[in-house]
Design brief:
Layout lengths: L7 H4 L13 H6 L6 E4 L5 E3 L7 H9 L3 E4 L6 E4 L4 E4 L1
Antiparallel strand pairs: 1-2, 1-3, 3-4, 4-5
Length: 90
Amino acid sequence: MENQTICTDIEKIKILKQASSHVCEACAKIGGRWLHLRTCQTCGVTLCCDSSPNQHMTAHFHHSGHPTVSSAESGERWLWCYEHEIFSEY
């Protein structure tokens, strides 16, 4: 990961969790739709981003306290820490 300032939550990540499928698990259960996907780096769940109608990943952070996510989009290589509001490319 190359960034001048990263937080302790991002520094703790040694192996990136990857999306097992390209679907928002919560949207799939309710018949919702999503725009982009994020994968939680604590538990591995893949959920939709804040540009999506249901914003499931942010809700997951508020419910679980899991601070870091990675983009599950093809070609994107970045992490976001909700707790510290830090973005880091890798």
